[in-house]
Amino acid sequence: MSDLILVGNQPTTSAGEIPDSDLAARPAAAVGQHVARFGLRVLLRYAVLALSLLVVLLVIGFALFPSVFAGGDPLTGVPADKFEAPSAQHWFGTDNIGRDVYTRVVHGAGLSLTATLLAVGIALIAGTVIGLVSGAVGGIVDAVLMRVVDVLLSIPALLLSLALVTALGFGTVNVAIAVGVAMVASFARVTRSEVLRVRRATYVEAAFASGVRWPTVLLRHILRNSYAPVISLAAVEFGMAILAVSALSFLGFGAVPPTPEWGSLIAEGRNYLAVAWWMTTLPGLVIIAVVLSAHRIGHQLDRGSHQ
């Protein structure tokens, strides 16, 4: 039996050969480490996605069934309980007149999500129509529409929303319209790029060559195969719309107090930061959680559309 010697960190025989047992062990260990790292990445990816879905579903539950998640009255409080810190009795603490902040967050989800969904719906429909017409027709129509889109994209969305809601007036619906119009350009740009890509596909050319009518090709072949990236954009813009709606509500353009709305809840607590930090921090964390969850879901949908 030949003696073993060490070359660096690698055991070898006196003839300079690596023992057979080590040759078999090292690849197995390397494969095991690779599989473990890959499995951890997949687990973390889908764990975060599952958590994001849970957050969004929970907030939708708040909006649809607020009394199930918070049975108290969001408009009346107990003055003796004002400025109570978060506890088992009041999860998010109480405000300056003794109202339960958690109850107001739950009941405020309805207005906030309604405005957000309306804004995204307006942007999705209008942007899809503009992008579809621009990409499919081309020529002077495409040039004019895209210049309008470029102008809209050059203006910060929140500033444009603020200008529009100032012209439209106060109220949740007007806030939703202003935010939706400000987001139209993003949907139009993405839709146009997808339509231009699909227009050059072989099956679209074959449909035209076989005599299929233009509207049929436009709806059945072009639009049908262009919507996936637009849907993923809608999920991302959902989170951005929540931020915009909450910002306008914070500035006083939303629902009339004391009706709870996420942005107005933060505005109510800004004067009491020194004594009741939870009045602004906890509703703000709810908004952050929903925005990040919507962004994660949109990112996953975008990955799926490119696979």
Automatic annotation (TrEMBL):
Membrane topology, record value: Multi-pass membrane protein
Pfam families from the UniProt entry: BPD_transp_1 (PF00528)
CDD domains per UniProt: TM_PBP2
GO cellular component, one term: plasma membrane
Transmembrane segments: 43-65, 117-141, 148-167, 173-190, 230-255, 275-294
GO biological process, one term: transmembrane transport
Compartments, as annotated in UniProt: Cell membrane
Domain ABC transmembrane type-1 as annotated: residue spans: 109-298
Principal location: membrane
Keyword annotations of the record: Cell membrane, Membrane, Transmembrane, Transmembrane helix, Transport
Family annotation (PROSITE patterns): ABC_TM1
Annotated family: Belongs to the binding-protein-dependent transport system permease family.
Protein name: Peptide ABC transporter permease
Species annotation: Williamsia marianensis
